[in-house]
Amino acid sequence: MLDSNAFDLRKYISRNPQSMAVWVALATLILFGLLRYDNFSGAYNISSFLNYNSMFIIISVGMSFVIMTGGIDLSVGSVAAFTSVIAAYLSPHGIEIALPLAVLAGVAFGGLNAFFIIVLRIPPFIATLATMLGAKGGALVISGANTIAVDWGSNFTKMGMEKIYNILPWSIVVVGIVVIALWFLLEKTSLGRTVLAIGGGEDASMLMGLKVNRAKAFVYLLSGGCAGLAGVILASGFGAGQPLEGIGWELTAIASVVVGGTLLTGGLGSVPATVAGALLLGLVFNILNFENGLGTITISAYWQMVIRGGFLFAVILFQARVMSRNKRKGRVA
Amino acid sequence: MSTQSYVSGSSQPIFNWKKVLKNHGGLVALVVILGFNILVTPNFLQLQTLFVNISQVATIAIVAMGMTLVIATGGIDLSVGAIMALAGAIAPLIFQSEFGQMYPALGVALAIGFPLLVAMACGLFNGVLVSVLKVQPIIATLILFISGRGIAQVLTNGNLQTFKNPNFSYLGTGKILGLPFQGWLAIAIACVLFWIISRTIFGRYVLAIGGNERAATLSGGPVRRVKIAVYIICGALSGLAGLIVVAINSASDAARNGDLMELDAIAAAVVGGALLQGGRAPIFGAILGAVIIQLVKYTLLANGVEDEVALIAKALIIVAAVYIQQARKE
Asked: CB of B142 within 8 Å of any CB in chain A?
């Protein structure tokens, strides 16, 4: 017998068969990039890639918790836009004030979602749609529909602009720490197991005496907080609060989660695979940019959306096949 | 099922406000908004106001009716706005092509027919993913939501296509008996769909699937085909709405056509009484919902309320409508 705490690749794969595709695809794309482009492994490309995608990694991981319970959170993009404005307003007080308060604002929107869903029993799709509109409207109201410049004198822009050894942006360091903590939380705590159990069967979980409502509230608060953090990175990296940003972020996040193999019916999911999904989608654009740079092809920005949709399609086909195979084997997925 | 509990022997109030609000919340809301506008909004009771609102509401209503059918089967279609953009981008490409210039009549006919076919193909794609591959509707339609608008922008290189084509523009600017053509079109579509839902076997299956898909399958219903058909109808109606928007503007902008329409359509369907769990298809309710959504927009705009606040108002309407529904169910 293997020590259950040791990381066992085979066990991981057998537990998350649909996650395999994303690791293979990610490895293939990285290899392709390394072989084809000179500057692909350059410090500039790696750091700007990680910096930009740190926002999508964090909202995707937050989203994956929501989806594991069988829910959905459409409000993350608007909430990030809202908190980017909050963070920009608070930037003169430094990152140590702006970051927690902006994240708290995100958590508050998560609380609104949780209230709609758990207390008013409104379906997550509709509840978070309403919050999305509300947060978007709120962001425009508090900013007067203008971008809000941050205070360059404080240490606020450090998070989104400064890098350790010129390669590791602070944003990805912070996001990385949060993601690892959430990974641990999902795999090793009773709260994490409850999250997965709810997606497997909400009624059964409740009958088993699990604290279903508490776990559901937690995932929406978490997703809101993650969106809040993404908003801080946005404001810090671009030097301004962006009330108009965030459109379509929820879809990128959902796509990353799906690409990472989390089942949309809930009950199954993996934090690292979600991160891989987010990296994969980001890498597609990175490679497209390099291709355009080589001049061999010119792919307009409009193709990016088409390719993104195509990726999602491919993964969904793959998931559907794995699911039906599992069903034939009589395994409950 | 409405389960109002009547305690035997207790006297019923003659006018039960709660009941009226639960069962006719949409109509009550409409009356309130109209009353508010008549009192407050300057120049509300003018023919011009009516024209503006009808021409705007028709596209929302047409898409919302398709959405209502999809929701009736327990599904959802996020791709409606993207399909609008796609259909709207293709039409000018056809009637402005050399062929379209040479044979103007045929060009316009093709410019309407072909985009509708493409829109139906999009619906077929959604329907197959949902009913054959069993992908959740929200994800299945997410694919086209993301890439459909991209395809439209690739086709047009992201350019705004402007044109002068009175025949095609009739779709959006024509008038019958003094009222906008698309308003009549929306009503005609509503009558046809209402007949289909209430009088045909297909219609019964749509409701049966939403009521209990497993039961419908076990009783031998053509569940797959019906679900695919519903998405095709929704696709076709979205395509039509996309053409109308292009015709109104005499210009096609793939980036903006149908943007956020999925929200308006879902909101209109829900306000009109569609249950997200499926099993109900209030077609005329969808029109009522569309009118309410449009009137709220108009009211706020006409009274100088900023767009952003209007968004918050829309959010509140959606939550309130679903909450009232939820109460009705329980």
From this structure: yes
For residue B315, give the nearest of A133, A307, A313 by CB distance.
A133
| pLDDT (tens digit per residue) in A145-189 | 888 888 888 888 877 777 887 778 888 999 999 999 999 999 888
**Closest-CA residue to A79 (of A217, A250, A240):** A250
How far apart (Å, rounded) are the C-alpha atoms in residues B287 and B279? 18
CB-based contact B315 A137, cutoff 8 Å: yes
Query: Alpha-carbon torsion B257, B259, B264, B266, what sign?
Result: positive
Q: What is chain A's mean pLDDT, rounded? A: 84
Count H helices, E strands: chain A? Answer: 14, 4
φ, ψ of residue A241 in degrees (nearest 5): -75, 135
Q: Name the more confident of A114 and A19.
A: A114
- DSSP tag of B13: P
Q: What is the pLDDT of residues A17-74, one digit of tens each?
A: 667 778 888 899 899 989 888 888 888 888 889 989 999 999 999 999 999 998 899 9
Residues 6 or more apart from A253 whose CB is under 8 A from it?
A56, A59, A60, A62, A63, A76, A278
Task: Please tell me which residue of chain A has the smallest CA distance to B316.
Answer: A130
For residue A123, give the nearest of B140, B263, B276 by CB distance. Answer: B276
To test the contact with chain B by mutation, choose from A117, A129, A281 the residue with the greatest count of B C-beta atoms within 10 A, namely A129
CA of B88 vs chain A CAs: smallest distance (Å): 16
Q: ipTM, 2 decimals? A: 0.76
Would you list the domain boundaries of chain A?
Answer: 17-323
Tell me if chain A has a CB within 8 Å of the CB of B305. no
The 10s digit of each residue's pLDDT in B62-110 is 999 999 999 999 899 999 999 999 999 999 888 888 787 788 888 888 8
User: How far is Cα B261 from Cα B80, in angstroms, rounded to an integer?
Assistant: 7
- In this complex, is the C-beta atom of B104 within 8 Å of any C-beta atom belonging to chain A? no
CATH topology of domain A17-323: ABC transporter involved in vitamin B12 uptake, BtuC (1.10.3470)
> With an 8 Å Cβ cutoff, are A127 and B151 in contact?
no
Tens of pLDDT along B113-127?
999 999 999 999 999
Task: Find out whether B57 and B290 touch, Cβ atoms under 8 Å.
Answer: yes
Q: Where are the domains of chain B?
A: 54-259+276-282
